Amino acid sequence: MHPPLTIHRHPMCAEIIEQFQKCHVDHPLGKFFGECTDLKLKLDKCFRQEKALKRKANFEESQKLKEQLRAFWKENSETREERSFA
C-alpha cells in the first residue's frame, strides 16, 4: 500500500508517479497481474528515500529548537535567581 499519489506532496517521486499512473491506464487488467510491479517497487523505494530525508530535516530542526529552549531556560533561571537575591 502506498500513500496518495499526489505529485505536489511527493516532488522527488513525480516522474515515477506519472509513469506508474500511466502504466495503470495503459494496462487496466495487466496491473492486477504484475504488469506495473517494477514501477511500484521503484515508487516504494523513492517514498522511503523521501521519508528519510524529511525525517533527517525534522530531526535537525528539532535539535535547533531544543537548543533555543535550553538557552531560554538558562537565561530565565539566572534572571529568577537574581530577582530572588535582590
Describe this structure in words.
The structure is a single chain. With 86 residues, this protein is mainly alpha-helical. The chain is built from two helices and no strands. It has helices at residues 14-26, 37-85. Helix 1 (14-26) packs antiparallel against helix 2. It starts with 13 loop residues before the first helix and ends with a helix.
Q: What keyword list fits this structure?
A:
2 helices; mitochondrion; 86 residues; 0% strand; COX assembly mitochondrial protein; mainly alpha; disulfide bond
Number of helices: 2
| Helical content band | over 70%
Q: What best-fitting shape do the alpha-carbon axes yield?
A: rod-shaped
Strand content: under 5%
Number-wise, the strands total 0
Helices and strands, in order, run as HH
Tell me the quaternary state. single chain
Distance between the termini: 64 Å
Mean pLDDT figure: 89
Family: Belongs to the CMC family.
InterPro entries: Cyt_c_biogenesis_Cmc1-like (IPR013892)
Keywords: Disulfide bond, Mitochondrion
Organism: Rehmannia glutinosa
Please provide a brief summary of the model.
The chain is mainly alpha-helical. It is built from 2 helices and no strands.
SSE inventory with pairings:
Blueprint (H helix, E strand, L loop, with lengths): L13 H13 L10 H49 L1
Helix pairs in contact: 1-2
Main location: mitochondrion
Organism: Rehmannia glutinosa
Protein name: COX assembly mitochondrial protein
